[in-house]
Amino acid sequence: MRSAAIGLAFALAALTGTSSITGPAVAAAGKPSQAFGGGEILWDSFGVPHIYAKTEAGAFYGFGYAQAQNHGDILLHMYGESRAKAAEYWGGKYAEQDRWLIANGVPERAAQWYKLQTPQMRKDLDAFAAGVNAYAQAHRDKLSPEVLQVLPIKGVDIIAHAHRLMNFLYIASDRRVLVEPKTNEAGGSNAWAVAPSRSASGHTMLLANPHLPWAPSLLTYMEAQLNAPGLSVYGATQVGLPVLRFGFNNDLGFTNTVNTMLGYTSYALTLKDGGYEFDGKVLPFKTAQKSYKVRQPDGSLKTETFTQRYAVQGPVFDLPGGKTTIALKVAGLDRPGVLQQYLDMGKSHNWGEFSKALHEMQVVMFNIVYADRDGNILYLDNGLLPKHDGGDVGYWSKPVPGNTSKTLWTGLHSYDELPKVFDPATGFVQNANDPPWLSTWPRALNPKDFPAYVAPVGPVSQRAQMSVKLLSEGPKISFDDFVAKKLTTRSLMADRMIPALAQAAEGNTDPDIRKAIDLLSAWDHRFEPDSRGALLFETWAAIFSPNNFTDQSNYAIEWTPDDPLQTPRGLKDPAAAVAMLKQAVAKTRQLYGAVDRPYGEVSRFHIDGVNLPGNGGYGNTGVFRTITWGPMKDGERTPVHGETWVSMVEFGTPLKAKGLMSYGNASQPGSPHRGDQLKYLSDKSFRTLWIDRGDVEKHLEDTTKF
């Protein structure tokens, strides 16, 4: 770890009081904001804050204020949750969540981690919290009354939230550890980096494209620009984090995708004589009394106490059903620098500086894809990966024997030991949440060169296969091509399966089958508003390949690493596939009223008063422009997950940057920026990202001085 530990010896003077801000949106000034150097927020016409500060801490202050203005309700709610006081604030439905965080020591560890930050980072965190408090003081009437009790926010709350999000949601959520190991709490993403050798202009290009839930939550994104001495970065991050996780400056950029990194281990304990067996001995559990408060319906508070047990591996939990008791060991509980590393990545201006930031190894998971003006590109299967003596991902994903020290890992893999591809001869890297082995094509990584627990060999999703095809096929890619490829709604599964399905139905005289085959054969395999075959194909595909289009048992040839871009394919039982089409016809009529209903009539981009035709489809059908649709309600279905933040950058002179925050840059009720970007999503177009101050001032909506 870098020198963050010197923070233990440094006592930062307490910053008390609540800030006020001057400017069109706010009333009188106050001294605390001046402790961070002052500055201003230029709000553009899409509600994006462009923060210009005189100090680094000032940029954090402005960003805290801006997040509170655009997302105050979910921001304060998630800080209350990360304190493990949600049940105290909002009642018993949060009791199990609080207990999980308390059992895993999140509040105490957050306090330790705050002390371990560098003096500058502690000041930055305090500044961010002060910015949140300043907005709340000036605009209490714009915040939900139920979240005001969380105020004031402190710097330690920011660390607690980052710790909870990274270690106990992304890596080891209670649902993943206690209920279903295959649970993915982190969503999905696409990422591309194109080198000069593959670029028509000779300049590198970078795509950032995370897919997360659309409902406001701790996974909601916010777009911003931060400017201060030594810091100039544009991008997005999840609300509640004070640093940009997806960012670029004039010289380089970086993005993240969810990877397959397994950063925790569950140990199945063998209970005996009130303790547990370990290396031939019976050891007693260590115990600690823990408690939390639960608000009752009448407003009173009830204290709930529990005894938390600990084994040599970590805290102990009973799995549902009571038949299995596990101990939990989570990687990264000694790595308090995730926010520092992302800040250092954003402050970098060349590969050497960025590489130094990567070597900090504080980011607990996520692939990192990188591109810079000098022509370098990188794919890194990043994360904190425990070292094991053997076993594969499947083995370590389930509870392993906890009665022996042979399964108890103590070390983590170094940066140099992680799969990565730097400046490949192919001229591109990509990731669509697939294992690292197809990060470029032809392949540059061989699974046999790494332990089997690093990542599964496959299967590789059809979305990831489409990603590889889009980058590897055709002539060199211009920036316009780059944008157009990103926008494709074509289904790779439809390309493969409709011809086989039509062949299987030859000679079939059933009128439903004939109409269905004619409809699918006339469709161009794109999920566009006027597509009349898309709903039928989607319905058939869900029957043919259940479990979110992942079950391959009905394909003639399942996915194979020997033919990774052409499998799965074919119909194992053609007659059964045609029978499934008959089922799909009936179900499509039932769900949508007609077998040939235009896709955009029922698939809608709808937030508040904005309601527009939708496009894009399920990623597992091989659609790169990913939208996961919710169930039909009131005659329409709307996104529950998918396209959120998109940025596309070409590192030429001048820099080209386009992007979109699909659902808008604010979640606060009444904000004009809830859903104001849906028209671009519906039109399949993007905004020009205003980076230069002169361009920002031409599109100025408001100014907040501090």
Description:
With 706 residues, this protein is α+β, with helices and mostly antiparallel strands. The chain folds into four domains: 175 residues, Penicillin Amidohydrolase, domain 1, CATH 1.10.439; 226 residues, 4-Layer Sandwich (Glutamine Phosphoribosylpyrophosphate, subunit 1, domain 1); 67 residues, Penicillin G acylase, beta-roll domain (Roll), CATH 2.30.120.10; 132 residues, Penicillin amidase (Acylase) alpha subunit, N-terminal domain (Orthogonal Bundle), CATH 1.10.1400. 30% of the residues lie in helices and 22% in strands. The protein contains 21 helices and 31 strands. A ten-stranded mixed beta sheet has the order 20-18-17-8-7-6-5-2-1-31. β10 and β11 form a beta hairpin. α2 crosses α7, α5 crosses α7 and α9 packs antiparallel against α10. The longest helix is centred in the N-terminal third of the chain and has 27 residues. It starts with 30 loop residues before the first helix and ends with a strand. The relative contact order is 0.13.
Outline the secondary-structure elements.
Layout: H1 31-34, E1 39-44, E2 49-53, H2 56-82, H3 86-90, H4 95-103, H5 106-116, H6 119-138, H7 155-171, H8 174-178, E3 188-194, E4 205-213, E5 221-228, E6 231-238, E7 246-248, E8 252-257, E9 264-268, E10 271-272, E11 275-278, E12 281-284, E13 286-295, E14 301-310, E15 316-318, E16 325-330, H9 338-347, H10 351-358, E17 367-372, E18 377-380, H11 393-397, E19 400-401, E20 420-422, E21 428-431, H12 462-472, H13 479-486, H14 492-504, H15 511-522, H16 534-544, H17 546-549, E22 555-557, E23 569-571, H18 574-592, H19 599-602, E24 604-607, E25 610-613, E26 627-629, E27 639-643, E28 645-650, E29 656-661, H20 678-683, E30 687-688, H21 693-698, E31 700-705
Parallel strand pairs: 2-5, 9-19
Antiparallel strand pairs: 1-2, 1-31, 3-4, 3-21, 4-27, 4-28, 5-6, 6-7, 7-8, 8-17, 9-16, 10-11, 11-12, 13-14, 15-16, 17-18, 18-20, 22-23, 24-25, 26-27, 28-29, 29-30
Helix pairs in contact: 2-6, 2-7, 5-7, 6-7, 9-10, 16-18
